[in-house]
Amino acid sequence: MKTRPDPATDKQSGGRGGSVQPAPRGAMTIMDRVGAFSGAAYFIVANAAIAIGADAATPDAPTGQESLDALARMAANPAAQAAISIEFLAFTFWMTFIGYVCWRLRAAGWVAAVALVGGVVEIAVKLGSAAPLISGYSLRDQISPEQAAILTQMNKADFMVGLLPAGLFVLCAAIAALRTKELGRVLALSGIVIGAGNIVTASVSGVNLPESGFAPAFLLILVWELVISLRWGFARNHPRVRAAVSPANPVIS
Question: What is the pTM of this model?
Answer without folding.
Answer: 0.79
